[in-house]
Structures are given as C-alpha cells and as structure tokens.
Amino acid sequence: MLNRIFFFTLIVLLINSAGLQAQSADNRPLKVKKLYDKLQFEEAVKSGRESLRRGRSYDGDGLALIHRYMAYSFFNLSERDSARAHFLTLLSINPQTELDIVRTSPKIIAFFEQVRKEYEQLKSENKIIAVKQYVFVDDKRPGAAWRSALFPGWGQYYKNQKTKAYWASGLFLGGVVLSVISYAQEGRYKDLYLKETDSDKITSVYNRYNMYSKARRFLSYTTAAVWLTSFADALWSAYPGISIQSDGQDKLSFAYQIHF
Questions:
Q1: 129-140 exposure pattern, b = at least 16 Cβ within 10 A, e = fewer
Q2: 174 vs 142, higher pLDDT
Q3: What are the residues whose beta carbons fall under 8 Å from the beta carbon of 155, sequence distance 6 or more?
Q4: Is the dihedral of CA 98, 99, 100, 101 positive or negative?
Q5: How much is the pLDDT for 94?
Q6: What are the start-end ranges of the E strands in the chain?
Q7: 96 backbone dihedrals φ, ψ, rounded to 5°
Q8: Which residue, among 53, 148, 234, 8, has the nearest Cα to 45 in the 3D structure?
Q9: Tens-digit pLDDT profile for residues 39-88
C-alpha cells in the first residue's frame, strides 16, 4: 500500500512540476507585453532584459514577442537606437514579421518599415548586423522521450546528458535484475512454505517468503519510478546547447550552456 502511494505521489509531483515550469517559461514573454499594454514602458524594458539575461530557453515566438515589445517600449521612451536594435533582432528571427496595423501606432509602423528596408539592404550586401543573432536548433526532447520510454537513459544520452544517462540506465538495470531475483526467491520460498509440514520451520520459511515478497514489490515500484522519472526528464528537461551571436565586428561569439 505504501509503495503504491509513493508511486502515485511521484507521478503527480512530476506532472505538476513540469506544468509549473512550462507555465513559468511561457509567462515571461507575456509579462513584457502586459507591462507595455499598461504603458509601463520602463518596466517592460527591465522585464525584457531580465528575461534575456537569465539564459532561459525560448522558442522563436517567445523571443520575437520579447524583442517586439522591447522595441515598442524603447520607441515610446524616445530611444530610437535601442528600438531599432530590437526591431533588427526581431527581423533576424522572422524576416516576414508584420505589425498589427489596428493595435500598433502608425508612427511605430513607419519606423519599423524604415528598419525593415535597412535590414534588407544589409542582408543584400552580406553585411553583419550589429544586433543579437539567434541560431535555432531542433528540439531533441520528443525524440529523447520515446528513447527513454524504450530504455531509461537512452533519451538522456541522446540529449548529450551522459552522467544522467549512466545513472538512469544503471538504476533501471539494477532494479530489473534485483526484481527478477526477488521474484524467483519469492516463488521458491512460497513453494517451500506450502510444502513445509514441520511446525518448527514453518515460521522461518514464511518469514523468508514474506521478506522476498516485500522486496519484490518495493524493487518493482522503484524500478517503475526510475523508468517514469527518466521518461519525464527526457521529455521536459532542457539540455546542453550552443548559441551563436554576432557582435557586429566580423566575428562570432559562442556560448555553451548546460542545464541540469
């Protein structure tokens, strides 16, 4: 009974944790937009800077949202150079970006179109744009998830998290081996118990049978928990990645981030 409660609790905690992390990550770009909508331009800029500085993993839409509303905020603060830089970054993420003509000031749209012409000119001349550049890579987590579903640790190895992979694989294999041994011993002592006729030995044999039965259940649930944890980690956790940024001086800087 206790093992079942532990196993169920672990599932709930993993699901809730993943949901909270995803929700938290999704809310960061939206926070910049909400602050801008409230006309809190300085706070929107501050929130956007903090979001970018934290080194979190955002998809293209999330990054575009941050840079879009930072550009809007800087424009309203009369900091045109900063607004230009963020619009250039926005275009580097999605060159087909269009602003909402209903919700966006005509002055901002006119300024953005000027920046777009500048961006296209720079691109046609193969000049480096002096703004942050992002390189997007395929998300390995779906592929890692089905690999860990087949064999715990394989997904982590696929994501280049070798230490996690060795631990997950080792614990899972160890749990399987010990579970099989406990199961065999449980069956052996169960047969001995059922066949035992000597009253002096019945209690001893039964205790052995009961011990292996509890061990088998505990090891089975623990092994299942290792499998579930490996699958959840492969599906939701971030992984090592390389980001490339241009500094506008004909050279590239590389940043290597490892998430645990």
A1: bebbbbeeeeeb
A2: 174
A3: 143, 144, 145, 146, 147, 148, 149, 165, 230, 231, 233, 234, 235
A4: negative
A5: 86
A6: 241-246, 252-257
A7: -90, 15
A8: 53
A9: 999 999 999 888 887 655 666 788 888 899 999 999 999 999 999 989 98
Neighbours of 149 (CB within 10 A): 16
The architecture in CATH of the region 15-137+241-257 reads Alpha Horseshoe (1.25)
Mean pLDDT of the chain: 79
Per-residue pLDDT tens digits for 182-228: 999 999 988 988 888 888 788 888 999 999 999 999 999 999 999 99
User: Domain extents for the chain?
Assistant: 15-137+241-257, 141-236
Which residue is it, tokens 């992979």? 165
Cα gap 17→236, rounded to integer Å: 10
pLDDT score, position 27: 76
CB atoms within 10 A of CB 161: 24
